[in-house]
Amino acid sequence: MDEMERGYLSDPMTGDFTAKVTKVEDAGDGAWRVWLDRTLFYPESGGQPDDWGTLGGFEVKAVSEEGPGVCHLVKGRLEIGDEINGHVDMVRRFDHMQQHTGQHILSRVFVSLEGLMTVGFHLGEKASTIDLSGTASEDVIARAEREANAVVFQDLEVGARVVTREEYECGKDGGDGVRSRLPEGAGSIRIVEIEDMDSSTCCGTHCLSTGMVGVIKLTGTENVRGGTRVEFLCGGRALGDYGEKHGALTALGASMSTDWRELGSIIEKLVSENKSLRKERDALSRELAGYRAVEIGEPTGEIGGYGLVRKVFDSANAGEVREMAAKIRESGETIVLFGIAAPGPGFVFACNPAIGADMGAALREAADVIGGRGGGGKDFAQGGGGDPSKMKEALDAAEKKIREMLE
Questions:
Q1: Sequence-ordered list of residues with C-beta below 8 angstroms from that of 221, at least 6 positions apart, any chain
Q2: Does residue 1 have a pLDDT over 50?
Q3: CB 80 within 8 A of CB 21
Q4: Which of 221, 226, 299, 383 has CA 20 to 30 A from 247's CA?
Q5: What is the DSSP letter of 209?
Q6: Positive or negative CA dihedral for 51, 52, 54, 58?
Q7: What is the domain partition of the chain in residue ranges?
């Protein structure tokens, strides 16, 4: 097929056409691979997804470059020689045109601002990305977005032309773009041009003017292989993204009985208040742990001449249990073995530093019984996980280990 037979290149705004079936192959599962004498369906290539629609009333499931031209995977049987009507989903096509044209604009802007080349492009179903050859700071990203939208608002003409390989490689095509490496065997090259702004080799579908892109919004960046991956939305996608975020912010503002524009200061105030409340809570928790330590700190047994405080909490906060254990071990020559059954199984073992026991070793014995894990030093250890129904057996194993150390 030449460019005229690939109508998506010369007339991207048209989606209805007639064509003759030139070849068919059974693809199995009720699908057929179909080639035509001309087509308006764009095949997936160059980072741009394929078009969808119908051929002869049957659904077109995929379009690709294959064999003698463009292959259409059709959910239905067509015969060689059939004259059929084709229909391209123009909502999907126009969305891809907006994203792809926006990519050309962004790529040129990044080169102009910082000399950052585009080394990769992906047009996704929800968002698109370009990979830049170097690091782009937040300031560069913000400037690029402003410059790209300035190009959109100028409504510059977007066109395409075909030149020979020789004209392109010798720089005689009149373009000012950076020379791309051409694939082997390519005799002619299609160049997409944005009036007085950009010239790039490309086989995709594009808007007829930059104004059709609508708006370009950069939505995120990440470091990739020494460069920067920039995520962006154009046209309808950008509008949809704005609508979702505006709706979410408006609803959040309403829940706080304020305008969404005031949310920043309100959230900042809430974060500050939350930090203060957490500090107060932690202080009260430590104070409460001190009181509870006095309440339950009386030894329930004895190991090697030292007092033993052993207890399983049916439900407790691990932080509060740690505070209690620390308080109790400070009060004298005492060994503490605490188990927590819920909300998650856990252990807190502690002893006065003067006692020659190893709490870390004792905890490992308990963890083996319950199927949990943990660790610590000689005077303090903690862990969790496993089967809480075996908590008593686990504490028995820990107590036995300590007795072996001290007796």
A1: 136, 141, 228, 229, 230, 231
A2: no
A3: yes
A4: 221
A5: B
A6: positive
A7: 7-88, 94-243, 297-406
Q: How far apart are the first and last CA of the chain?
A: 92
Cα dihedral 37, 42, 46, 47 in deg (nearest 10): -160
Q: Can you give the pTM of this predicted structure? A: 0.70
Rounded Cα distance between 223 and 234, Å, is: 22
Domain 297-406 matching CATH 3.10.310.40: the answer reads yes
H helices of 170-312, where? 235-255, 263-296
The amino acid sitting at 305 is G
Which one of 2.40.30.130, 1.10.760.10, 2.60.120.200, 3.30.565.10 gives the CATH number of domain 7-88? 2.40.30.130
Classify 228 as helix, strand or coil: strand
Does residue 256 sit in helix, strand or coil?
A: coil
pLDDT (tens digit per residue) in 146-199: 999 999 999 999 999 988 877 777 665 555 555 455 556 566 788 999 999 999
What confidence tens digit (pLDDT) does each residue in 216-241 have? Answer: 999 999 999 889 999 999 999 999 99
pLDDT of residue 296: 79
Q: What angle do CA 135, 139, 145 make, to 5 degrees?
A: 95
94-243, superfamily in CATH? Threonyl-trna Synthetase; Chain A, domain 2 (3.30.980.10)
Mean pLDDT score across all residues of the chain: 89
Residue 200, pLDDT > 50, answer yes
pLDDT, tens digit (0-9, with 9 covering 90-100), for 240-277: 999 999 999 999 989 888 888 888 888 888 898 898 88
